[in-house]
Write a structure and sequence with these properties.
five-stranded mixed sheet; 10 strands; binds 5'-O-[(R)-(carboxyoxy)(hydroxy)phosphoryl]adenosine; binds zinc ion
Length: about 350
């Protein structure tokens, strides 16, 4: 089969990104323009600012992705673009851009689910990885435990009922004064802290053993901080970070291992921004070794938002026959597996 070269665009949150990816696995370019410094000033992502920055940056980012790949739009076989989930104004910038290019060059348009993109980052990281496998997707907006039955075929086993794992990291980091984005800062602070200093809860969901809830542990941290402050007691940030992280990481690993036992699957894959957490990777590695499971995870730059993962997902969707029309719209709450 002929090579398929895809130009991919990602603008669902605070990164404007474009990449050129061949056959879903080979990266010719990977350009990310991050707005993190700007949003840090406000303690989190400000949606309107995100959209405005995307529209300012997107042509430069695409131009660079093409020149880094040593190609022009004439060499591109299809355009892949994130159309959900995410911030509507931010998504619309990427979708409108992708449509304009596909229309002008008369090439196929493939809308991509951002969560599917996170999963597909693993196909780029490890060129031999093939479904079926169990995937834990842990990002700022989503916590999903998914059986990837085949390319583009997902069975959701469980998800968060409230805060996503990354969201809990970000909220706790803000409360203990570490700032935004919280995940990497908690990860770093926790290395100098005692994970057993506080006994934060690990919530279980009665009617689905694979669902998650992180608002309880977040509230427990906030209550502990308030109680200590009222009593004039000292708070050791590193200990809070380490104890909170332990609760979240153990919950995620326990739930995933339960799914391994129920399904008999032999491969486990991590995806999403929180997948770069060092404690999470370490515990997963240990538990997988104990059980003789193959364990896969993307390098940190492929864990957080990027367009390479969208280029990979777009390729597998393209091969599966997915094509979007000129009526493609942003879908802020798009679910995994929905078309
Ligand atoms: O996947 P991502 O880039 O964006 C979404 O699709 O949401 O994930 C961003 C999330 C943020 O909540 C960030 O705090 C978290 O991933 N994160 C981490 C780490 N690096 C990023 N959380 C824990 N430990 C990390 N090392
Ligand atoms: Zn993401």
């Amino acid at each position: 089969m002929e090579d398929v070269k895809i130009l991919a665009i990602e603008s669902s949150c605070d990164e404007t990104a474009a990449a050129v990816v061949v056959n879903g696995r080979e990266v010719l370019s990977n350009v990310i323009s991050s707005q993190i410094d700007l949003h840090t000033l406000y303690g989190g992502v400000v949606p309107e600012i995100a959209s405005r920055k995307h529209i300012e940056n997107i042509n430069f980012v695409i131009e660079k992705a093409l020149s880094d790949a040593g190609c022009t739009l004439d060499d591109i076989d299809a355009i892949g673009v994130t159309y959900g989930p995410g911030l509507v104004g931010a998504l619309l910038v990427g979708v409108a851009e992708a449509k304009a290019i596909a229309f002008a060059k008369d090439i196929p348009l493939v809308g991509v689910n951002h969560i599917e993109g996170h999963v597909c980052a693993n196909y780029v990281e490890d060129k031999t990885l093939e479904p079926p496998f169990l995937c834990l997707i842990v990002s700022g907006g989503h916590t999903h435990l998914v059986m990837v039955e085949d390319y583009c075929q997902y069975k959701i086993l469980g998800k968060s009922r409230d805060d996503a794992a990354g969201e809990a990291f970000d909220k706790v980091a803000r409360a203990i004064g570490l700032g935004y984005p919280g995940g990497p800062k908690i990860d770093k602070a926790a290395k100098d802290g005692n994970p057993n200093a506080y006994d934060f809860p690990k919530a279980k969901i009665a009617d689905n053993p694979f669902d998650f809830s992180f608002s309880g542990v977040k509230s427990a941290v906030l209550n502990e901080l308030n109680a200590r402050t009222m009593k004039g007691e000292e708070i050791v940030t590193e200990d809070v970070a380490a104890s909170f992280q332990k609760s979240v990481v153990e919950t995620l690993v326990e739930r995933a291992m339960l799914a391994v036992e129920e399904t008999g699957v032999k491969k486990i894959v991590l995806a999403g921004g929180v997948a770069s957490n060092t404690a999470l990777r370490k515990l997963f590695k240990e538990e997988c070794e104990k059980r003789g499971l193959d364990f896969y995870y993307p390098s940190p730059e492929l864990c957080t938002d990027n367009a390479v993962m969208i280029g990979s997902a777009a390729y597998f969707e393209y091969k599966n026959g997915t094509r979007h029309g000129w009526d493609l719209n942003a879908i802020p709450n798009l679910k995994l597996g929905e078309k």
